[in-house]
Amino acid sequence: MSSLVRDLYRRRELLLILVNRNLKIRYKNSALGFFWSLLTPVLLIVIYGVFAHILKFNKSRPDYLQFLIIGIVVWQFLAMCLNDSLGVILGNANLIKKTSFPRFILPLSMVLANLINFMLTLVVLGGYLVGIHMTFGNIAILPLVMLTQSALCLGMSLILSTANVFFRDTEHILGVFVLAWFFLTPIFYPIEHQLALLPPRVHWLAFLNPMTGIVCGYRSVLMSDSVEFGPLTLVSCGVSWLIMVIGMFFFQYVEPRLADEM
Question: Does the pTM exceed 0.85?
Answer without folding.
Answer: yes
